Amino acid sequence: MKTIKCPQCGGPSLWDESNKARPFCCDRCKLIDLGAWASESYQIPVQPSDEAYEDYSSYDASSLPTNATKH
Ligand SMILES: [Zn+2]
Fold first, then answer.
1. What is the mean pLDDT of residues 33-55?
2. How far is the CA of 38 from the centre of ligand 1 (A)?
3. Domain region containing 13
4. Taking the model in full, what pTM does it have?
5. Which of 10, 22, 27, 67 is least crowded, fewest Cβ atoms below 10 Å from its Cβ?
6. What tens digit of pLDDT does each residue of 10-33 get?
């Protein structure tokens, strides 16, 4: 029966339909990995484009080129 390397603990993980946690070796590793992924998602910094938008908001709209309003 085929086994793969568990992405979480690096141990052998059974690659079979009977392993509901695959590619993880067990539910515990699966939950740990999902938890880590979720916590990382909260650490994504503000998009640079959002900061650029903040900068543009300080400009007088009438001074912007006309093609800048066609977004
Ligand atoms: Zn594991």
1. 68
2. 18
3. 1-43
4. 0.51
5. 67
6. 999 999 999 999 999 999 999 998
Tell me whether residue 27 is in a domain.
Answer: yes
The structural domain count of the chain equals: 1
* CA–CA separation, 13 and 22 (whole Å): 7
- Residues around ligand 1, an ion, CB closer than 5 A: 6, 8-9, 11, 25, 29
The phi and psi torsions of 46 (rounded to 5 degrees) equal: -60, 140
How far, rounded to the nearest angstrom, does the alpha carbon of residue 14 sit from its chain's CA centroid? 26
CATH of the domain at 4: 3.30.50.10
Q: What is the DSSP letter of 66?
A: G
Contacts of 25 (CB under 8 A, 6+ apart): 6, 8, 9, 11, 12, 13, 14, 19
Positive or negative: CA dihedral 15, 19, 22, 26: negative
